[in-house]
Amino acid sequence: MLEPSELDNLRHELRTPLNHIIGYAEMMLEDAQADGRAALAAPLQDTVAQARVLLDRVKELGEAADVQATQALIASRMADLSAPLAAMQAAIATAAAMVTGAADAALAKDTERMSRAAERLRTLLAPESAAAPETRAAAPTVPRASAKPGAAILVVDDNENNREVLTRRLQREGYGQVAQACDGREALEMLRRQPFDLVLLDIMMPNVDGYEVLETMKRDADLRHIPVIMISALDEMKSVIRCIEQGAEDYLSKPFDPTLLKARVGASLEKKRLRDEVVEWNRTLEARVEEQVAQLDRLGKLKGFFSPQVAETILGEGERALNTHRREVVVVFLDLRGFTAFTDTSEPEEVMGVLGEYHAVMGKLVMEHGGTLDAFLGDGLMIVFNDPIPVDDPAGRAARMALEMQRDFAPLHDEWERRGHNLGLGIGIAVGYATLGVIGFEGRWAYTCIGGVANLSARLCGEAKAGQVLVNEKVLKRIAGEVVAEPVGDMTLKGITQAQSVYNITALKG
User: What pLDDT does 100 receive?
Assistant: First the structure.
C-alpha cells in the first residue's frame, strides 16, 4: 500500500515533466500562431492536448489512494498513461522535424527539452523503474530587460526546466527583473541580500521546502511584507489551506494557466505597490509629526525667554531673523499709578497676586493686537509693534490696544479698590527708529528694542494720569483719522531734548 506522502511524491514526479512539456509547447504555439505557421501549430496543439489528458489521469491516482487502492490497482492506472504518452511523443517528434533550420534554433532547443521531459516520464512509468531524481542545476543568471523595471521577481524551484518555463513566461509579460533560486536555502540568502517585490515559490524541494521558506519569511520583519505566490504540482485543498494560513498571497497549481498567472502576479504586485506607498506615507507622516513635536518643544522653551511672535520667528526663519537691525517701530509703555505706595503697605504675596491678575488681562490684549512683549518691569510693560514681524498700521494697532487696556482695566480697578488698593493705569505711545536684536548671555537671552523711541514712550507713560493714553504729535498724525484726542499741552520730558506736544487719546472715532 502506498502511504499518502509516497503518493504525493509520485504524483509530483509524474506531473513535473508534464508541466515542462505544456509550458514549452504553449509558448511555442503562441509564437507559431503569431508567425502564421499553421503546420507547426498543429502538432504543438496535439502535444498540449495529450499532456493534459496525462495530467488528468495522474490526478486520478489520488482517488485510488483515497479508497485504499492496492499496489496492483495503482500500477494498472499508471499503465493507462502509456497511450496518451505515445501520442504526445509522436506530436513532439513531428514538431521537432519542422524546426531544424538555423532560424529555428531556439524552437529546436525547446522541442529537445520537451523530448527529454517525455522520456523522463516514460522512465517513471516503467514497472521496475528506480529512476534517480533529475540533476538539480544551479540557477542561471537571468539578464534584466527594460520592461516593467520596478517589479523585481524571484522564481524559486529546484527543477531547472520549471524555473526556465516560469521565467520566460514572466519575461513575455514584460517583467524584466526576474531572478532565480534553485532551492529554499539559496532563496532566503538572495532575499536577505537584495530587495524583491514578489516571490514565486515551489513547495516540494529538497532540504528547505517551500513551506519552510514561507514560514521563515513571515517571521522575518524585513521579509514578511513581500508577497508570495505558491506554485506547485500539489493541488490538494489541504496544501492550499496550509499555504494561505502561513501567509501566502496566492496559490497556483502546475501547469499554470498563463492568463491566470498574469492576473495573479499583477494583482500581487499592485498590492505590494499600494502597501509600499502606505508605508512611505506613514514614514513621511511620522517624520513630520516628529518634526512638529520637536518644533513645539522648541517653541515652548523659547516662549519661556521670548514673546510668542519672537519665538515663532526663530522657528520659522531661523535665528538670523533676530540679528541686530534697525527699523521704525511703535513702542507702548504702561505701568500702574500708585504701585509704589501699594507695595509699601502690602504683603509680597498680595503684590504678586495683583500683578498676576494685571499681567493676565494686559497680556491677552497684547497677543490679540499682534504686539511683541519686550519686557516686564514689575508693574511696567513695554510692547513693540512692527518687529520682529512687520504689521500693517502699527500705530493704529497700538492705539486700539491701549484704549482696550484702559477699558478692561476698569473691572480690575474696582475689584482692587474693594480690597483697599488704589491703583490706576497710565499708558504712553511713541513712534520712531530703533535698534532691535538679542541681548544677554549664554543661558538667558532677551529680544529688546533700544533707542530714543523707547525712552520717549516711557516718559509719556510717566506723565500719564490714571486712565490716560498719551501720545506725541508724530503718533497723532499717523492715527488722526481713527481716534478722538484732546490736547494736554507742550511738555519737556526728562532725557528728551525737544519739548513735545502731547495729546490724550480718549476714544476711537465712529
Answer: 86
